[in-house]
Amino acid sequence: MTTVETLNQIFKMVFDDDSIQIRPEMTANEVDGWDSLSHVNLITTIEAKFNIRFTQKELLKQRNVGDLITNIDLKLAS
Amino acid sequence: MNDDMFNIGSVCTSQQCEKGLANKVAMRWIDAHGSCTDYTFGDLERHSNCFANVLAYLGVGKSDIVFTFLPKMPEQFFAFLGTLKAQAICGTLFSNFGEDALRDRLGDSGAVGIITRKSLYKKISRIRHQLPALRFIILVDGDDDPATGVFSYARLMSEASDEYTVQPTSPDTPSVLHYTSGSTGKPKGVLHRHGSLQSQKATTQDVLGLTADDIFWCTADQGWVTGTSYGIIGPWSLGVTQVHYGGGYDAQTWMNLLATEKITVWYSAPTALRMLMREDETIFTGADLSALRSIFSVGEPLNPEVIAWSQRLLKHDIYDTWFQTETGAIMIPNRPGIPVRPGSMGKPVDGIVPAILADDGSPVPDGMQGNLCIKTGWPSMFITFLNNESAYNSKFKDGWYYTGDTAYRDSDGYYWFMGRSDDVINTAGHLISPFEVESALLEIEEVAESGVIGAPDDLLFEKVVAFVNLHERFEPTKDLEIKIRLHVSNRASSIATPQEIIFCESIPKNKSGKIMRRVLKARYLGEDPGDTSTLEI
After folding, report:
1. B464: closest CA among B443, B483, B492?
2. What was the pLDDT predicted at B429?
C-alpha cells in the first residue's frame, strides 16, 4: 500500500467513518470529529502504524493532510 | 411581566425585533473556510419561527424532547430557539459523541426527534433500533426518507410559515437539557427552565459586561452549557451581536478573527488558552487586538501562568469564571472591577450565596477546605435530573446545593477551587465519568477489567488514565493500546479517550467489588493510598 492508502485507512479507523477519502488539501475542519483530542489519536496511530515519530515542531507546522503525507514520506525515506 | 416574557426563544428573537433591532446583526457566521454570512435578529426570528412550525407539523408537543446533534452551524441556533418557542425541551449533543454516549442520552430522555447531518446520522442509524421513542430525524443536508422517519430540513423549512405565536410560557416551563457525568452510573439529564434566563441575562450584563455595542465571541460548543447559556441565551436576550466560527482551534485564525471582527469580549477555555501559550509568540505580538476589552475563561481552573502570559502578550487579564451545568449560569467569577487573584475562582455574583461546608453541614472556617455549596433558589438552578429524582434530591441538604467541588474561601472573600469530592474527571473543561470509560473499555474483547482515574495534566488540567487488566490469553501491545484509545473515542467521545493506558495484573477492589480508584490514583501519583483495610487482594 502507498503512504496515502495506509493513511486513508488510518483516517477511517480513527474517525470511525468508512466514507472518508483524504486529499492533500483536506484540513481538520472538513472531517467530523477531528478536534484537538482526536488529533492525538490520529498522530499516535500514524506513528505506530508507520513506525515513525514526529517532533513537536513538525506537529505544530502540519496544517493539512498534505503536510502529514510529506512528513511521513520524509521520515520513511531517511 | 407577561408569561411569554419568560420564553427564551421569544426573548432572544421576537422581543429584540420589537425593540427595533430586527435589522441589527445577531450572528456573524464565519464558516471553516472563512466565508461570512450575517443573520439579523429578524432572520433569527423567521428561521426559529419556521422551525417551531416544523415541530408542530411533526407532532411535537409541550415538554417533548428534541435534540440537536450538529457541529457549530446556523441551523443549530435556529433549531434551538425554535424548539424553545414551541415549549418543547431542547437537548444539545456534542458532535463528537460516539454511539454509547448517544444511546445513553437519547435513550434515557426518550427523545422524540433529533436534528443532525448526514455524516453524523451514521452513528444514530447504528443505534436507532434501541431508541423506540425516536420518531423523526431531520437532516440539514439530506433528503426525505419517510420509511425511516427521516426528513429534509430544507424541504420542511421551505414549506413552514415564518410566523409563529409563542404560547404563554411560565418561568417553570422546562427548557434546556444537558447531560452531565457523575462518578457512578450513566450520565444524568440536567433539566433547566425558561426562568433560567434571569440569571443568564444578569450575568451576561454584570460579569461579562456586555452592552448593545459589543461584539462577543464565545468559543464553546453548543453541546455544553456554556455554549447555550452564553453562546446563545445571554447575549441574544440583550440584543448583542455574536460572532460564531465553524472552524476548529487554530491560533493564527483565532487571532485574525479577534482582529478583523473587532471582537470586544471573548469567552474561551483554559485548555484552549494553554494551547495558545505553546504557539509562536509572533502570532500574538503581530495581532491587532485594539478592539478587545475583556477575556473570560470557563471550564477548569485557570493557572496563574496563563494570566501572566496573557498580560504579557495579549495585554489583558483573563477573568476566570466558575459555574456548572447544574447551576445554569455563572456563580463565582473574576470580573472587571475586582482585582484578579491569579488562580482563584473570584467572588460570587449578586444574589448568589456560596458557603464552604463540612460533610455534616457545619460551616468551615476561612482558609479551610470543604464542600462548595450554593444556597438554593437562584433562577437558573436546575429543576431535576431527568428520570432520577433521588439523585437530584441527594444533591441538596438543608437548603444548600452541594456542587461536588471542594474549595476554600480566603479572608477577603475570594474562593479557591481545590478539586472534586467524587471521582469525576475534569478534562479540558469537560466532566468525564470514570464509569463511562470503564464501561466502554469492557466492550473490548481483550479487556478483563479496568479502573479509570483523572491525573494532573499541564494542558488538559486532568487527563484520563486507564488501568487495564487483560484476559490471560492476551498480551499488551502498541496495537492494542491504539485499539483501546480508538474504541473509547468512537464509542464514548474524543474527550473521554484515555491519554495514558497502564496494563496491570489486577484492579484493586473492595470486598463488595467496587473499584478503589483512590488506590489507583495514589499508585499513579506515587502517594500513600491511605486506609486499605477494605481492599480485596
Report:
1. B492
2. 86
Q: Tell me if chain B has a CB within 8 Å of the CB of A25.
A: no
ipTM for the predicted complex comes to 0.88
Between chains, do B486 and A30 touch, taking CB under 8 Å as contact?
A: no
* Cβ-defined contact of B485 to A41 (cutoff 8 Å): yes
Q: Where are the domains of chain B?
A: 3-311, 425-536
CATH code assigned at A8: 1.10.1200.10
Fold of B425-536: GMP Synthetase; Chain A, domain 3 (3.30.300)
Number of structural domains found in chain A: 1
Supply φ then ψ for residue B122, to 5 degrees.
-55, -40
Domain range spanning residue A15?
3-77
> Is the domain defined by B3-311 classed in CATH 3.40.50.12780?
yes
User: For residue range A37-63, what is the model confidence (pLDDT) as tens digits?
Assistant: 899 899 999 999 999 999 988 888 888
Angstrom CA distances, B527 to A2, B369, B514, B521, stand at 48, 20, 21, 8
Q: Which residues of chain B neighbour A17 with C-beta distances below 8 Å?
A: 119, 122
A28 contacts B486? CB cut-off 8 A = no
Say yes or no for a CB contact (<8 Å) between A29 and B120. no
Cβ-nearest to B489 among A17, A38, A60: A38
Helical pair B99-109 and B434-442, crossing angle rounded to 10 deg: 120
Mind listing the pLDDT tens digit for each residue in B434-479? 988 998 999 999 999 999 999 999 999 999 999 999 999 999 999 9
Main-chain phi, psi angles of B26, to 5 degrees: -90, -40
| Least confident segment among A23-37, B65-79, B334-348, B354-368 | A23-37
Q: How far apart are the first and last CA of chain B?
A: 64
Structural contact between residues B443 and B491, judged by C-beta atoms closer than 8 angstroms = yes
Question: CA B458, CA B463: separation in Å to the nearest integer?
Answer: 9
Do the beta carbons of residue B267 and residue B220 sit within 8 Å? yes
Q: Under the phi-then-psi rule, with left for phi > 0, alpha for psi from -120 to 50, and beta for the rest, what region is B55?
A: alpha
Q: Determine which helix (DSSP H) or strand (DSSP E) holds B434, and give its type and residue range.
A: helix B434-442
